[in-house]
Amino acid sequence: MSFEENIRKVVPYTPGEQPQRKVIKLNTNECPYAPSPKVFNALEKFDASFLRKYPDPACTGLVNAIADYYGRDPEEVFVGVGSDDVLSMCFLTFFAGKKPVIFPNITYSFYEVWADVYRIPYKTIPLKENFDLDENDYFIENGGVVIANPNAPTGVAEPLEKIEKIVKENQDSIVIVDEAYIDFGGETALPLIDKYENIIITRTMSKSRAMAGMRIGYAFGPKKLIKYLNDVKFSVNSYTMNMPALIAGEEAVLDKEYFEEIRDKVVATRERSKTELKRLGFSFRDSMTNFIFAKHEKASAKMIFEKLKENDIYVRYFNKPVINEYLRISIGTDEEMDELFKVLEKILAEI
Ligand code: PMP
User: Fold this and answer.
1) Is the pLDDT of residue 1 over 90?
2) Domain total for the chain?
């Protein structure tokens, strides 16, 4: 007998590296631009003496701002410490049954970690060889469904009709649609919350709103599901979001103009990067996100990953079956991408 058997053991999620010196960082899909000037302003004015008190557990200001911006009722909005926290709460709340939760084999690798840590049975469903999802594969008995759309790390956006079919065919389960990258392309499933009772949509301010460091995520869903989520949240930690995050999040949502400006810049750089990467011999599915998941015609992904790192350029490499010949390259500024293309050209000339 030992305490070991009483311990909840898990294989944790591995986040992308956060080197503490200045490098060209294209490995965690952050935004290369600063958050809205309104966020800077609000944080400058923030009176630290407020920190004496607990923050608003209902996150009223932020919830109302998000609801307002997207034309929803505040009771249809949930917020959390990044969409990782929101998704984790969703797994804990909605997947308490015995049947396996299903999601694609190639998707955000945190899904299986949450399933493991909460002891939720799950089953992965292979994507097609070209990384497309076949909706018919999801018409099976399950305890829940999770779909990232656009998907990560593939960058592929599935049409809304496919997502709707999955929601419609699974009305005895909750379907989570993870829209972390939706601001960069693809069709949102948001209108489906008026039509179905079993859908939750999660979003983040980490990518298109340039606030990965602040940790703000949110979800939309029918009021009943949002109430269930809040009941679980208030049973784990009432005060998930701190005061500066609540203020910064509200300001970021309100600054539509700045949001659109930086999002458009990232999308323009992404489109230019597609041309450059093709010229260098890479192939990839048409990305609708702020990254490109690319494979080189001759050079191994691992080799390119390592050589780029030697040159202080960080991209993401997943040493996993099916995708171990791919690199996930986040979209940086135009200057950062130009440096990447220059270094890639040099590396590829040497093979
Ligand atoms: N979903 C997907 C598909 C992601 O790629 C990420 C980023 N790692 C997240 C959710 C979580 O993002 P965050 O916690 O920063 O909101």
Assistant:
1) no
2) 2
- Residue at a domain's end among 226, 255, 284: 255
Distance CA 187, CA 185 (A): 7
Between helix 110-117 and helix 82-94 the angle, nearest 10°, is 50
- For atom 1 of ligand 1, which residue has the closest CA? 180
- Are both 137 and 200 inside the same structural domain? yes
* Residue 220 and residue 284 share a domain: no
Q: Name which residue sits closest to atom 12 of ligand 1, judged by CA.
A: 83
Rounded to the nearest whole angstrom, what is the distance from the C-alpha of residue 86 to the centroid of ligand 1?
10
pLDDT tens figures, 137-174: 999 999 999 999 999 999 999 999 999 999 999 999 99
What angle, rounded to 10 degrees, do the helices at 37-45 and 243-254 form? Answer: 150
Closest atom of ligand 1 relative to the 153 alpha carbon: 5
Q: Give the whole-angstrom CA distance, residue 166 versus residue 31.
A: 31
Range of the domain at 212: 37-255
Give the whole-angstrom CA distance, residue 287 versus residue 271: 9
pTM of the predicted structure, to 2 decimals: 0.98
CATH of the domain at 294: 3.90.1150.10
C-alpha dist (Å) from residue 118 to 14, 26, 93, 105: 17, 31, 10, 19
Looking at residue 288, its amino acid is: M
Q: Which helix (H) or strand (E) holds 175?
A: strand 175-178
